[in-house]
UniProtKB/TrEMBL annotation:
Gene3D superfamilies: Rhodanese-like domain (3.40.250.10). It holds the Pfam family Rhodanese. Its EC number is 2.8.1.1, 2.8.1.2. Residues 18-133, 164-280 form the Rhodanese domain. PANTHER family: SULFURTRANSFERASE, THIOSULFATE SULFERTANSFERASE. One of its GO terms (molecular function) is 3-mercaptopyruvate sulfurtransferase activity. Coiled coil: none annotated. PROSITE patterns: RHODANESE_1 (PS00380), RHODANESE_3 (PS50206). InterPro entries: Rhodanese-like_dom, Rhodanese-like_dom_sf, Thiosulphate_STrfase_CS, TST/MPST-like. This is Thiosulfate/3-mercaptopyruvate sulfurtransferase. Keywords: Repeat, Transferase.
Amino acid sequence: MTNWLIQTEELSTLLENRPGNVVVLDCSWYLPEAGKHARDDFFAGHIPGARFIDLGDISDPNSPYVNMLPAADLFAAQVGLLGIGNETEVIVYDAGYVSCRLWWMFRTFGHDRVRILNGGWRKWKAEGRPVETGESRPIEARSFSARLAVGKVATVDEVHAAVDTGGTTIVDARTAARFNGLEGSGYPGVASGYMPSATNTPWARFFDPDRNFEFVTPEKARTIFEEANADISGDVITTCGSGVTACILGFMIEQLGNPDWRLYDGSWHEWGQREDLPKLIKQSGY
């Protein structure tokens, strides 16, 4: 599959036909500092028939770093409980910035039958489309087989080597204030700042608020990367605060024709806590 987006009109038609092999997932999520849980938002309103998936349930429970990719069997078990099998078409949406993370996770575990709802929950609501409240409808669990694909994840050692040797473009999706060290990281005990040679391309720039937060066009995305002097045509590693919004950059890079980008899964949550790794702070704004 190369068309990774589905439009609200197409999804609406799809749901009217009640297909048996399509699962819609609400993957909304909040940083710990927000003090709330997206599951409550799901209960208050979601796309009819959608199921809620908690990022915490499909992250490595044993890692000291947040939101890390779990073992394949854990991911398989969790998505299987949501009625997803290897032939299931998965459509993910959220109310913010997490859908690309789920898109990346499914593909990293060998499942390419996944698309992102363009504009997500915000566009769906703005268009006055049907809304369901409360728990998910009854779900019949299915068997899902997951196997980690090669070349999707960059380890901390690989990123450190890329910083030292150059030749790899490292793009950081965090806000300019967090990247520059002018604002907290969003995680207690983790300082702000950035790794040497990283380029800041804030994730929010890749959504168009004038079009109900659809992704910007590939042409606009290319301009954003060019303005940041980020060469995304070769070896690219994406990073952010905890490996979530970095997937937005990867999604846009892939839309621009480079499917071989890698995600630094530990991102700043790991790098920022490692005393042996170099960190920089800018004294002025973006």
